[in-house]
Design goal:
By secondary structure, the chain is mainly alpha-helical. It has helices at about 5-15, 20-30, 40-45, 50-55, 75-80, 85-100, 105-115, 115-135, 135-150, 155-170, 180-190, 195-215, 215-235, 235-255, 255-275, 275-295, 295-315, 315-335, 340-355, 355-375, 375-385, 395-410, 415-430, 435-450, 455-470, 480-490, 495-510, 515-530, 535-550, 555-570, 575-590, 595-605, 605-615, 620-630, 635-645, 645-660, 665-679, and strands spanning about 35, 60-65, 65-70. Among the domains are: about 5-95; about 100-195; about 475-620, Tetratricopeptide repeat domain (Serine Threonine Protein Phosphatase 5, Tetratricopeptide repeat); about 620-679, Arc Repressor Mutant, subunit A (Orthogonal Bundle), CATH 1.10.10.10.
């Protein structure tokens, strides 16, 4: 201490000898910490002559060309500076650094040190926006957090709205929005800001979007409804209607039609109050779709027709296309799979008005209707078209990819089909489309069944049930729940078969939909078979078959014929059973559904199978030409040479023969064809 004391005394004397301007420059240089560029040194000096004594007295030393460093200990200098000088130095540095966005954090720190937190908060916000524009989102998060801490409660609402919008843009670009949710919640809970409805509405809108990105769709929809209330309080009726529509759409996709219907009805009222035809058309369409989901088909169609009328009157072409599509969806919910008029009108309308985005979603929905109605060639083509269009929205590609996989699985191409279904399910989860989740688990289970992987199939059916229980679905799961009943019945597991049958009974009890009634009769028949009551099972299967045939539910109709044949066989009616199995197999072969064709073949007596396949009954004339050569073990190239066809054409005919004969290999097909010709 005795060594340093004299130097401190001398330094104090020298400090006192400096002018006020020189002291200010020196204090700022001490706060700078790093080497000081000459340009910054010049900016700090109000009078250039204030720098001369600092250089002459070696307070400042030139370290390299254009840069200066402190010639004495910075801590000693700062200990000598009174508060007023320190404050002035902080302000000077803050103003200089504020001119350079990359130095915004340092500027804000100096403003805060100078006792100006409002200015510091403002600079933190500007710096956060600057980092957002450069996609430096983690740095921006810190800046936003500092701004929240420092901005005063009395910050004008318009400034807060602009800030939270910028924050939303930044948060929307991040992979993980968890930290953004915490920051946004801190904004909303600030006492001085919670009473600003306009700001709260915009904040809730962003908060809901982040929740939905995390897959928390129902929670996000609830926050959107809260945003609508805030917007109404702020007198922003159009904004409120938009949030209600968004909430209804999210709940619809997530298969919560009751809440979606109530929200859409509220949106209709608000849209009319706004005097906005576009919003009224959207709201009526949303309300109509949700009524259709709830089984109120006529009321739903009426509202959708009204929505379509408004859209066409006001030339709102995109909304008209959506109304057409939703009319098709309502037909699907009523299990009217033959009524594809609305989807086709929607696709044609979109083509005329260049709405490619809406057209792809319509094609995906039509692909599903064609699958259920048994028109697989066109359905597969549409599914591939949508799935392979990289410019399609995520939701459309999810539907197209899933349906592409469904067709592949049902044609026996299990590995490829499962891959596509998994891809579609992943996209569906990102967009919150609950129907995709339900159908994906159903078809994954079907693929595992066809591949004789019973434990995996059971796991998929359990996943289907677990997900379905989180929804209010009364339609989309009918197909899968019915298949699950048959699967567990086949395993001899009555408890699980009954567990999957129970929802079908509940759905049918509150519905006039014939598909739902058919599914309930089907499930009851499976349980009767397990209980050794085949005669009663026959009657229940017949009721199910009548319902499925009436609605052209092709897969269910084939499956029911096969199971009815099993029940008839148990009663001794083997001739009727054989007739049903032949019909089931013929239908499955026409569809190209190899798993069901194989299942029907397994139950047929040998004589009936010979009758079904003998004399090339199921083959086209050209296939009959190819068949003897295939039976003789010739290669495709040899067959092409013998028949004067291209190898590619022969490839196609051989592939069809394998499918029609339910054979996996050429050797198996050759053996079967040879056996047929020898009988």
């Amino acid at each position: 201490m005795s060594v340093r004391a004299p130097s401190v005394v001398r330094l104090t004397r020298r400090w006192k000898a400096l002018s006020a301007g020189s002291r200010s420059v020196l204090t700022a240089a001490a706060l700078w910490v790093d080497e000081l560029p000459e340009t910054r040194l010049a900016e700090l000096a109000a009078d250039p002559t204030d720098i001369d004594p600092l250089v002459a007295g070696r307070w400042l030393r030139e370290s390299s060309r254009g840069h200066w460093r402190l010639g004495v200990d910075a801590a000693l200098v700062l200990s000598l500076a009174p508060w007023s000088v320190l404050r002035a130095a902080h302000l000077a540095l803050a103003r200089i650094l504020e001119r350079h966005p990359a130095s915004g954090a340092q500027s804000a720190t100096h403003y805060e040190a100078a006792g100006q937190p409002d200015e510091a908060g403002r600079v933190w916000l500007a710096t956060a926006r600057w980092h957002c524009r450069r996609h430096q989102h983690h740095v921006a998060d810190h800046c936003f957090a500092e701004a929240i801490r420092l901005l005063p409660d009395g910050t004008p609402e318009a400034e807060l709205v602009a800030a939270v919008r910028d924050f939303g843009v930044c948060a929307g670009m991040k992979r993980d929005p968890a930290n953004a949710l915490e920051l946004l919640q801190a904004w909303c809970e600030r006492a001085g800001w919670s009473a600003l409805p306009g700001f709260q509405g915009h904040a809730d809108r962003i908060y809901a979007g982040l929740l939905i990105r995390q897959g928390r769709h129902v929670e996000g929809a609830r926050v959107r409804r809260r945003a609508a209330r805030h917007f109404l309080q702020a007198g922003l009726a159009s904004e409120a209607t938009g949030e209600l529509l968004a909430a209804s759409g999210t709940l619809t996709w997530a298969l919560h039609p009751t809440a979606a219907c109530d929200t859409a009805a509220e949106a209709v009222v608000q849209a009319r109050a706004c005097g906005r035809p576009d919003l009224e058309s959207q709201a009526l369409a949303a309300h109509g779709l949700t009524l259709g989901m709830l089984g109120q088909t006529d009321q739903g169609r009426a509202l959708l027709e009204a929505a379509l009328g408004i859209a066409l009157t006001h030339r709102l072409t995109a909304l008209a296309a959506e109304a057409y599509r939703m009319l098709g969806n309502v037909a699907d919910y009523a299990s009217c799979y033959d009524d594809q008029t609305a989807f086709r009108k929607a696709i044609a309308y979109c083509a005329r008005h260049d709405h490619t985005t809406a057209a792809d979603l319509c094609r995906g929905c039509l692909s599903y209707a064609l699958f259920r109605g048994g028109r697989w060639t066109e359905g597969l083509r549409l599914a591939r078209q949508v799935a392979e269009n990289e410019r399609s929205p995520e939701g459309s590609r999810a539907v197209g990819t899933l349906m592409h996989g469904v067709y592949r699985v049902m044609r026996g191409e299990l590995r490829r089909g499962v891959t596509l279904i998994e891809q579609g399910r992943h996209l569906g989860r990102q967009t919150g489309i609950g129907t995709i989740e339900i159908f994906a688990w159903t078809m994954l289970a079907a693929a595992h069944e066809a591949g004789q992987r019973a434990p995996d199939a059971a796991g998929c059916y359990r996943q289907l049930m677990d997900y379905w229980l989180t929804t209010e679905d009364q339609h989309d799961a009918l197909f899968g729940l019915s298949a699950a009943v048959t699967f567990f019945a086949g395993q001899g597991d009555r408890m699980q078969a009954a567990e999957f049958a129970a929802p079908l009974q509940r759905i049918a009890a509150g519905s006039s939909n014939r598909e739902a009634l058919g599914a309930a009769h089907y499930a009851a028949a499976e349980l009767l078979l397990l209980d050794q009551e085949p005669a009663q099972a026959v009657e229940a299967f017949r009721q199910a078959l009548a319902a499925f045939d009436a609605n052209n539910c092709c897969i269910e109709a084939i499956r029911t014929r096969i199971r009815l044949a099993v029940a008839l066989t148990a009663t001794g009616a083997t001739t009727q059973a054989a007739t049903l199995l032949r019909a089931a197999r013929a239908r499955a072969v026409r569809l190209g559904c190899r798993p069901l064709a194989a299942l029907a073949s397994q139950g047929m007596p040998r004589s009936s199978l010979r009758e079904a396949t003998g004399a090339f009954a199921v083959l086209s004339p050209r296939q009959r030409d190819v068949a003897p050569h295939l039976a003789a073990g010739r290669t495709n190239k040899e067959i092409a040479t013998a028949l004067g066809l291209s190898v590619r054409t022969v490839d196609m005919h051989v592939a069809h023969l394998l499918s029609l004969l339910d054979c996996r290999t050429r050797t198996e097909a050759a053996a079967k064809l040879a056996g047929m010709s020898g009988r």
